Amino acid sequence: MGRQAVTIRDVAREANVSVATVSRALNGHSNVAEPVRRQVLEVANRLRYSPHAAARSLSSRSTQTVGVVLPDVHGEFFSELIRGIDSLARTSGRHLLLSSYHGDPEEQAAALRAMRGRVDGLLVMSPYAGQPGFLAENLPQLPVVLINTQQDAPAWPVFEVDNHAGALAMTRHLLSLGHRHLAFVGGPEHNHDARERLRGFRDAIAAQEGARGSEFDGEFDEASGHRAGGQILALAQRPDAVFAANDMMALGCLYAFAQAGLAVPDDIALAGFDDIPLARFVHPSLTTMRVSIAELGASALKRLLVQIDADEAAAAERHVLTPELVVRQSSGGRAATAPARKKRSDG
Predict the structure, then answer these.
(1) Is the dihedral of CA 329, 332, 333, 338 positive or negative?
(2) What value, to the nearest 5°, has the Cα angle with vertex 110 and ends 158 and 47?
(3) Torsion sign (Cα): 12, 18, 23, 27
(4) Lowest-pLDDT range, 163-167, 190-194, 197-201, 326-330?
(5) What confidence tens digit (pLDDT) does each residue in 101-120 have?
(6) Could you check whether 1-61 and 163-292+323-339 share the same CATH topology?
(7) From CA 168, how far away is CA 340, in angstroms rounded?
(8) Is it the case that residue 186 has pLDDT exceeding 50?
(9) For the CA atoms of the chain, what is the radius of gyration?
(10) Where in the numbering of this chain does the HTH lacI-type domain appear (predicted)?
């Protein structure tokens, strides 16, 4: 049995103010003293109060602000994602309210609740949201679009990358060059993107006679890539090629190999995933799967603005972006760009 919904009267009683004051505070009106506003928001967050959609529609006030809740803001992937979102937001006359939760579900829940009354809609990236009902319980009653987020029961539009197809294409590329012992540096254990990339790697290895794979843990950052690179170098039999599940880890591996005096790709081939801007400027330039990261962010915001302007209910739609294989120097193959696999978007 679900918990009883918290009402605006519950918030008013707990905060010791009137219902009208709670309404003004949550909707961002200027005629509320800042200490009172903070008190009301604190109580609303603690009680997990969400305004009823019908009540919200009675007010035509718009904040002209969009909330963006991400697992992190560190690294070139998130910089590119925010750049794409911000570019469209500026041309659309919208402000951004950005929050990150560093992979902590409790911090994420707090960040989502803190957006209430401050934004017209939400972009949410939640690759760690695997527990049943997490998003449904914590998302405020606002237009929402998800980015790279696995839904327990599809309820919102989602823009996602076909990570399995991308990893499959990259592993096949390395195998096509004659490499038979491949090492894979994975991402965080509970990250959906990381799991899909690992699945693509395993499927490609299983389909190739005589191929074998070695797997190493990573955290999608340079430090874990460097650590995995050291572990790979310590193997009794060094692999022919390394496929890191993102470019940041691939760059960490590249540094580890350079420190050990290995030449890439002559001594060991290397590839990544994402095609962050830095990938083409390192030496050797990095073979990778190109994800149009800025486009991903802009497309998600474009869909959200349609929802906001139409004041429509959320619809379960899947928009799938297919990554492209970008062959550069680090894998030893001839430079080329090719789609991983054509796949239709649903919705």
Answers:
(1) negative
(2) 115
(3) negative
(4) 190-194
(5) 887 878 888 888 888 888 99
(6) no
(7) 8
(8) yes
(9) 23
(10) 6-60
Indicate the CATH number for domain 1-61. 1.10.260.40
Q: Tell the residue number behind the tokens 């991402």, with chain if given.
A: 187
In whole angstroms, give the CA distance from residue 190 to residue 219: 11
Residues 304/308/313/318 CA torsion (nearest 10 deg): -10
Q: How far apart are the first and last CA of the chain?
A: 32
Please provide residue 314's backbone torsions phi and psi, each rounded to the nearest 5 degrees: -65, 140
Closest CA to 252 of 237, 235, 232, 238: 232
Instruction: Select the highest-mean-pLDDT range: 126-140, 173-187, 299-313.
Output: 173-187
Q: What is the mean pLDDT of residues 169-179?
A: 97
Cα(86)–Cα(294) distance, integer angstroms? 9
Task: Give me the half-sphere count of Cα atoms (radius 13 Å) on the Cβ side of residue 87.
Answer: 14
CATH fold group of domain 163-292+323-339: Rossmann fold (3.40.50)
pLDDT score of 55: 47
Q: Report residue 49's pLDDT band, with 50, 70 and 90 as the boundaries.
A: confident
| Cα 112 to Cα 104: distance, rounded to the nearest angstrom | 12
Q: Domain limits of the chain?
A: 1-61, 163-292+323-339
pTM for this one? 0.76
The Cα-based distances of 185 to 173, 188, 275 in angstroms read 17, 10, 16
> Do 340 and 323 form a contact (C-beta atoms < 8 A)?
yes
Cis peptide before 339 (omega within 30 of 0): no
Going by C-alpha positions, the residue among 125, 173, 134, 166 that lies closest to residue 153 is 134
